[in-house]
Amino acid sequence: MHDPVMEPMETTISAPHETEILDPRTDSPSVPADPVHISPVRLGPITVPTPVVLSPMAGVTNWPFRVLCEEYGPEGLYVAEMITARALVARNPKALRLCRFAPQERVRSLQLYGVNPSIVEQAARIVVDEHMADHVDLNFGCPVPKVTRRGGGSALPWKTDLFAEILRRVVKVCDAADIPVTAKIRVGIDHEHETFLEAGHIAQEEGCRAVTLHARTTAEYYGGHSDWSRIGELKSALDIPVFGNGDIWGAEDALAMIRQTGCDGVAIGRGCQGRPWLFANIRNAFEGRPERLNPNLGEVCDVIWRHAGLLTQFYDGDERMAVHDLRKHIAWYLKGFPVGGSTRKAFMECESLADVRREIDRLDPTVEYPERVIDKPRGRVRFAKKVHLPYGWLDSRVTTHEERETLFGDDPMDASY
Prior knowledge:
Protein name: tRNA dihydrouridine synthase DusB
Helix content: 25-40%
CATH topology of the largest domain: TIM Barrel
Oligomer: single chain
Cofactor: FMN
Strand order of the largest sheet: 5-4-12-11-10-9-8-7-6
Strand content: 5-15%
Keywords: Flavoprotein, FMN, NADP, Oxidoreductase, tRNA processing
GO molecular function: flavin adenine dinucleotide binding; RNA binding; tRNA dihydrouridine synthase activity
Region (Disordered): 1-32
CATH class of the largest domain: Alpha Beta
């Protein structure tokens, strides 16, 4: 007997390094900068006086980090990390924790992710009925394989019917409560399968109040430099506000993006990891002031300590969970400082606030912020080797009945974290 032929479970694209875009800060001739005019952005009932957005980042933008960024920054939008719709509908405890906001947050911005329109709609209804948020963002930009292989994140706009249906359902639920809906997208799956212009038009037609474009494809992941020209293309094509995202490492980058693209505002992701004061620098830049904050090690340690205390509140007094969460942030906070491998290792082994305090007190507070890391890239910069998609995903721009049955199956992993 012959073994049955196994059908492939997914489609993968082995993409070379797509981008040929170089870093404009180092590869363009120096020319005098034109002044930048920045206006408030209106999202339905919400006015964003200074159009700066803290982009949702998994494991990073819980409310303690948002509070730090907002304390430094202008009156922008500081968005919670992505909430999986199925997990929220299942009342997963971690999902519910991530939906929490601090009392001092001016606008409660929540990002939802999902593939099944019915489940995403149910999650949006929970947000509305339980008064969880003032603004809902929908994630169609995540490039990580565990998301795209299920048809989610940056893979989803390829299926225009599914993309439009999710937007339509969520906007209908949120409009009834006067809650604006926005969408985060990428340029496309790769340069052979670009979706951003069509997705932008669909988002506008379905009632989204703004779109954020991360100017890379899924295949480019976080590699190279994002192609800001695509942000300009989208801005020219739409009537709703467009926020630009990608490679804003300092205040001057934010100004340059607006100057080059005409976008309505900027969204900050990896650039603020370990640098919540980046928002102070962007605020100053947008207000035309030259002051830039680059704190010394003592001032950075004050931020670390405050962050530790806020995380302890977030975890309902559980210091061990708080300190474990803090570890990745400490690595970012100390980036570039001459503190030594043994000190970094000691921080990574902390189990309590007392441990963190002990290690902080061992550092020299007078050490200046290292110039070599000021406004420089941080976080993930690698390329994706492959793009993982559901099997046959690229065969058609609309979903088949069979695809929907596969995508919308009850996968218990969708409700877990």
